[in-house]
Amino acid sequence: MSLIITGAHVISPKENIDRKLTIYIKEGKIAALHDSDTDPKTIDKVAELFDATGLTVTPGLIDMHVHLREPGYEYKEDIASGARAAARGGFTSVVCMANTCPVNDNASVTRYIIDKAEKGACVNVFPVGAMTLGLDGKALSEYGDMKEAGAIALSDDGKPVMDALMTRRVMEYAKTFDMLCISHCEDATLAKGGAMNEGFTSTLLGLTGIPAAAEEVMIARDIIIAGLTGARLHIAHVSSAGALEIIKSAKARGVSVTCETAPHYFTLIDSDITDYDTNYKVNPPIRSDADRQTIITGVRDGTIDVIASDHAPHHADEKKVEFINAAFGISGIETMLPLTLKLVREDNLTMNDLVARLSEAPARILGLENKGVIREGADADLTLIDMDKKYTLCADDLRSKGKNSPFLGRELQGRATSVIVGGKKVDW
Amino acid sequence: MGLAIKHLLDVYSLSKEDVMYILDTADTFKDISTRDIKKVPTLRGKTVINLFFEPSTRTRTSFELAGKRLSADTINISASASSVTKGETLLDTLKNLEAMNPDAVVMRHLASGAAHFAAKHVNFAIINAGDGRHAHPTQALLDLMTIRDCKGKADGLKVTIVGDINRSRVARSNIHLLSKVGCDVSVCAPASMIPAGIEQLGVKVHYNIKDALDGADVVMMLRIQKERHGGNYFPTLREYSRYFSLNKETIKYAKEDVTVMHPGPINRGVEIASDIADSELSVILPQVTNGLAIRMALLFLLAGGSRQ
């Protein structure tokens, strides 16, 4: 089975590609790249032709931070529905966090996720193993075993490892197996009881605030312990200007640290939360406009390596309650590409850098050598984008079971028209 | 003429005209409670439900009497007696009440924003009787009414609010309302009880009660919640009282004719000394009397009352 994509503008910064090309795909790999005027018949007479005139083709986008909720919370999302949402959003690979029920803290749960993904997911699914048993921050889980079963990284995402000595052990043991540590940085004591960013808006609304300091002190601690242990550290969902400053100085000192932010942190600000709309409730919380501006700067200058959605689907019942009782999280994978394209349209990001943040860097950080790039021999994971497509986001349009998006009703521009995973066009 | 609002959720969405209209209406209701027969037929045939998810004596009694003196059928639901203990959501509780067609629901809830949430989902009038730390609009209105009674005006007065500003809905609603009518508002508390960015509301922040009271026309003391002392906001009630209470020493810094207010219930000897609470400067009990009139006015205006 082979496929030839013609007429598209192809972007792959790693290969310095930014022009019209014809892509020849065979047996799940990119078999060859040809000049756009090459007659497809001369490449492969029996290949299926895909006319992508007017579209932009990038290496398949990789979301390195999603919650697929399976096993245990299938009423919020399952692996198949989350994968469809990913594909609809333009993503060909997702990295799913361990806070399922049971927690993915042992090889049998890892294998279960991989097995379910092989049977029902239309995109590549890479599970993350828990740093500690039950995400309790008290005892190491079996990293070697989970890695063999297919775990791509380690994280207690959703809960911080509060104990500093435990964090040291996590990083040392992760280093033993050369596994990436993805850290959810939040000092639980400073954040306790909080429902939104601490600031003037939380004071107005009478909601307990989560200060940016809760995030920043843990980032500082984890970076220091990464320096001590030599582990590879990736900071999840960076939301504040202060956090970025700490990461920037650590990078300058040569600490092995990378980080990600999510589109809501460069799109929304805390004063947008009027009328207690629980779709804006997320952790870390949406911060001030000064934070948002700094996050944009970080995305542009590369201090922020990756944009990831922190896709956190919830059931409507978990959001249709008092703000303090509502679940944290945004169903975000289907709005990530248009919100990032907005940065490009506003001249805050080049298209090359968009591809770097959404594909190349995640592939590099996760060690996915044949992804994040369009070149001969690479995996045939591709995203086809209509840059001009305008549409109004509505709940029915979302493939995710979670309709908890603060962007419902907003006009978005730019959208994936199809994705190709392992050489095959995906149905969503 | 009527109000521009359908619900009373907070004070910042009230126009100055609405505020004055509510106060003037309350003035006209005040004498009903002093008559021999304390009842008028204004809300006959209307149903008012007091839905209280937090314990309250004063506010609930005040609303209940307000409804009854206007002839509304008034019932009380308190959290412990309701379905909440069976795990019913707030939305389901409200929808069940809606199915019984009340005209107004007076709601107190521990979650900030609960009244806004309710108003989005129901077809009857919601009167916020306190939501978390967010708002307590009827308290602020009765406080303003009391200040107007004492001073004849509010514009240009210096008002100092002392106590747990961070966790106080009374403080928030008063800051909004008193600033709206031209008062110069200061707050005073240990820094652990001052919420982020409060200066942006136009208030001055003091950590020293003597500075805070300097030249004050009105002082509002907030209750220190002895039962919720957890959280290490200050070391002991003793030390709190030493630095932040209103007593015959500290009151000297205010104007001689300062009006002393407190939303109640008071902790004698903690935030306010007994001799001050019982002095001629204190309007703590007139506040309660005005509270009843304010609530009668709001039920009348929002539950569809008629003067005929």
Question: What would your notes on this structure say?
Answer:
Helices cover 31% and strands 23% of the residues of chain A. Chain A has 428 residues and is α/β, with parallel strands linked by helices. In chain A, strands 1, 2, 3, 4, 5, 16, 17 and 18 form an eight-stranded mixed sheet that branches. In chain A, strands 6-7-8-9-10-13-14-15 form an eight-stranded parallel sheet. In chain A, strand 9 (153-155), helix 5 (164-176) and strand 10 (181-183) form a beta-alpha-beta unit. Chain B has two domains: 16-135 and 288-304, Aspartate/ornithine carbamoyltransferase (Rossmann fold, 3-Layer(aba) Sandwich), CATH 3.40.50.1370; 137-283, Aspartate/ornithine carbamoyltransferase (Rossmann fold, 3-Layer(aba) Sandwich). Chain B has helices spanning 16-29, 58-69, 90-98, 114-121, 137-151, 169-180, 209-213, 237-244, 274-277, 284-302, and strands at 47-52, 73-78, 104-109, 125-131, 158-162, 184-188, 204-206, 218-221, 259-261. In chain B, the strands form two sheets. A five-stranded parallel sheet of chain B has the order 7-6-5-8-9.
Task: Please tally the helical runs of chain B, counting DSSP H or I stretches of 4 or more residues.
Answer: 10
- Under the CATH scheme, the architecture of chain A is Alpha-Beta Barrel
Task: Give the terminus-to-terminus CA distance of chain A.
Answer: 21 Å
Question: If you average the pLDDT of chain B, what whole number results?
Answer: 94
Mean pLDDT across all amino acids of chain A: 97
Question: CATH homologous superfamily of the largest domain in chain B?
Answer: Aspartate/ornithine carbamoyltransferase
The radius of gyration computed from the alpha-carbon positions of chain B, rounded to a whole number of angstroms, is 19 Å
Number of domain modules of chain A: 1
Instruction: Give the SSE order of chain B as H and E letters.
Output: HEHEHEHEHEHEEHEHEHH
Query: What's the shape of chain A?
Result: globular
The level of helicity of chain A is 25-40%
